[in-house]
Automatic annotation (TrEMBL):
The lineage of its organism: Bacteria, Bacillati, Actinomycetota, Actinomycetes, Streptosporangiales. This enzyme catalyzes the hydrolysis of the N-terminal peptide bond of an N-acetylated peptide to generate an N-acetylated amino acid and a peptide with a free N-terminus. It preferentially cleaves off Ac-Ala, Ac-Met and Ac-Ser. Also, involved in the degradation of oxidized and glycated proteins. It comes from Microtetraspora fusca. Keywords: Acetylation, Hydrolase, Protease, Serine protease. PROSITE patterns: PRO_ENDOPEP_SER. This is Acyl-peptide hydrolase.
Length: 652
């Protein structure tokens, strides 16, 4: 691939996009603000060269400018202001690459950030106590599993000095798999463990000054997250279960006094990707479901004792709103289908007077920090000659809807190049299945605008099971992956062909994770596909169950048992239908992927070859769930463009 005409084209594409801001942030995330809203900080992703993953750095938003808060040594992320605004806590791996620890920066003083006692692991998140005297730390063991959203694989793990003949030994749960809670006391300068042995902490926040509320499980494996409960951990060490659910719980938040509690209950595909119903409790009362006006809530933060700031999605809209727990009323501050905020799901920060700070973006709108509530205030953005270049080649994005054969309305975002159709079409299927596309810069995919620049239309559909349409809609894929959702994609093609947008002879499919599964599955169910690119796919549910680190997921979403002959573990596996395939398939996986192991791509590849179908297998040795680092990303995009150009050329 390297040195080919397509490689040169793709490399030039990424260079023109990123080189104008080398050493400066090309993407912003994790917004934070002081209680009075006068100071705002963000995490920026920074390339110093087009190699590896970007480093992370913290920046203060100074009007239209971004001012470095931390130095260039290592990565730093998640800046968090103390309640009085005088100190910023942040996480950094400046001492040991890949191992994050807590640092404190006194905003009224000159000098370097203060170190804190190291914890035995890597810190994933931090939060201030309501009185500003302590910082809560969520700590993962060195070698704990990463979620699929994080790229799978494991957290940083020191290399073991073992001879090359030494076997790998597994006995089940590894000691380094656990996640725990620690508290740093600013006055004492000490950091001590809060959570007991044998309790895994997935996420946690303060519950008043003397307790925390956490999503917990008795085991640390990724599958245990699906049945995790909500627990109270007192600073005295007492643990009390507060709530459990038949589905999943996430995004806990508590008012400063600890009197009110909020949590999101949702059908979820992946840890950390939670969008669903809002549950709120009054002081001394049980959690109650709140009517959010059709918004699937993805982020929560108590503004004061009675007001809760929420972010979420409603269809293709991104929504920011405030819930008044006394009045029982939701007030929306902002909603948009043309722009959005956050990464996988919407996120923001709230000031004490109810303003919301977010990083707004859209397919045609480079990121900008915006303050909403009262008047709209636009602050620093990341527009530059690289973003101008992308806007000049990436076409436009528009909302499209169509009806599935059973009459269900399906939504999506169609990206089209300049000029008149019909265009060749690539259907880009999202992961999950419970996730959703929104109008985002590059559609949250490096390959989408690149394909559009080569003359392809790219459809980003939200089939049944996607978030943003309520829990009943999300449950439609429950036990039905590869069932009625199949027609959600094929009916989209029919609709776009009928509208004169798409050439029916040049239609391809690509997707990762669940999208990878569906890319392989669709090739077994319909011969209209000219080319398919399953990325990080599941192709054999039986072997997936016994080789993945999330076996609970497939049993849950297939509503089946791998030991039952003739069930969906067999009937919904693409490898079991390989003889029906006529579509050339480019099967891509990462060797470090523990969610959908690379053997899944290999099984489908070998099954296709056995039946005389053109197939390629590409496994990246340093990648996990998806391809993220340079130069592997250039290679990946080169192969994708070449595959579609070979089998359904856009030009020439």
């Amino acid at each position: 691939m390297r040195g080919s005409a397509t490689w040169d084209l793709v490399e030039e594409y990424f260079r023109r996009l990123h080189e104008p801001v080398m050493g400066h942030p090309h993407r912003l995330l994790e917004p934070s603000c002081s209680a009075d809203g006068s100071r705002i900080a963000v995490t920026g992703l920074v390339y110093d060269e087009l190699a590896g993953l970007p480093r992370q750095a913290c920046f203060l938003v100074d009007g239209a400018d971004l001012r470095p808060l931390t130095g260039p040594s290592g990565s730093s992320r998640q800046p968090r202001f103390s309640p009085d605004g005088t100190t910023v806590a942040f996480l950094s791996d400046r001492t040991e690459a890949g191992r994050f620890q807590l640092y404190l920066l006194r905003t009224g003083r000159l000098g370097e950030a203060e170190t804190t006692p190291a914890v035995p692991g890597t810190v994933e998140y931090c939060s201030w106590s309501p009185d500003g005297t302590k910082v809560l730390l969520g700590v993962a063991g060195l070698g704990a599993d990463l979620a699929s959203d994080q790229g799978s694989g494991t957290t940083y793990k020191p290399k073991e000095e073992l001879p090359d003949w030494h076997p790998r030994v597994e006995t089940g749960v590894r000691q380094e798999s656990w996640r725990s809670l620690w508290i740093h006391d600013l006055a004492a300068g000490t950091t001590t463990r809060l959570s007991p042995e044998g309790l895994n902490i997935w996420e946690a926040v303060w519950l008043g000054p003397d307790a925390v509320v956490a999503v917990t499980s008795p085991a640390p494996d990724e599958g245990a997250w699906y049945t995790a409960v909500l627990s109270r951990l007192g600073l005295d060490g007492a643990v009390t279960e507060l709530a459990r659910s038949k589905v999943q719980l996430g995004c806990p938040a508590a008012s400063p006094s600890g009197g009110r509690l909020a949590v999101v209950e949702a059908v979820c595909s992946d840890r950390g990707v939670v969008a669903g119903d809002l549950l709120v409790s009054a002081p001394g009362a049980a959690l109650q479901r709140v009517d959010t006006g059709g918004v699937d809530v993805t982020s929560t933060q108590w503004i004061d004792a009675d007001r809760l700031g929420i972010l979420g999605i409603r269809g293709l809209e991104t929504v920011a709103a405030v819930y008044d727990a006394v009045a029982g009323k939701i007030t929306e501050l902002w909603s948009s289908t043309d722009t959005s905020c956050g990464t996988r799901y919407p996120e923001a920060a709230w000031s004490a007077d109810g303003r919301v700070v977010l990083v707004e973006e859209g397919y045609s709108a480079p990121q900008r920090v915006v303050v909403l509530g009262g008047e709209r205030v636009e602050l620093a953005g990341i527009g530059h000659s690289g973003t101008e270049y992308l806007l000049s080649v990436a076409g436009t994005a528009e909302t499209v809807t169509w009806s599935a054969p059973d009459g269900l309305r399906i939504e999506g975002i169609l990206c089209v190049p300049a000029g008149e159709g019909p265009f060749p079409l690539v259907v880009n299927i999202h992961g999950g299945p419970v996730w959703a596309y929104r109008n985002m810069w590059s559609m949250f995919s490096p390959s989408t605008p690149l394909l559009v620049a080569q003359g392809y239309a790219v459809l980003n559909p939200n089939p049944r099971g996607s978030s943003g349409r309520g829990q009943d809609f999300a449950r439609l894929v429950f036990g039905e992956m590869g069932g009625e959702d199949t027609a959600d994609f094929t009916s989209a093609i029919d609709a776009l062909v009928e509208r004169g947008i798409v050439d029916p002879a040049r239609v391809g499919v690509i997707g990762g994770s669940y999208g990878g599964y569906m890319s392989a599955w669709l090739a077994t169910q319909d011969r209209r596909w000219a080319a398919a690119v399953p990325v990080s796919p599941v192709t054999d549910w039986y072997s997936q169950h016994f080789t993945s680190n999330i076996p609970y997921f497939d049993a849950l979403f297939l509503d089946g048992d791998p030991e039952v002959p003739g069930g969906k573990f067999h009937s919904r596996s693409p490898v079991a239908h390989a003889s029906k395939v006529r579509t050339p398939c480019l099967n891509i996986a990462g060797a470090l992927d523990r969610c959908t192991p690379p053997t899944q791509a290999q099984e489908f590849h070998q099954a296709l070859l056995e039946h005389g179908v053109e197939s390629q297998l590409v496994i990246y040795p340093r990648e996990g769930h998806g391809v993220r680092a340079f130069p592997a990303l250039i290679d990946f995009c080169t192969r994708v463009v070449d595959w579609f150009q070979k089998h359904m050329p856009a030009r020439g």
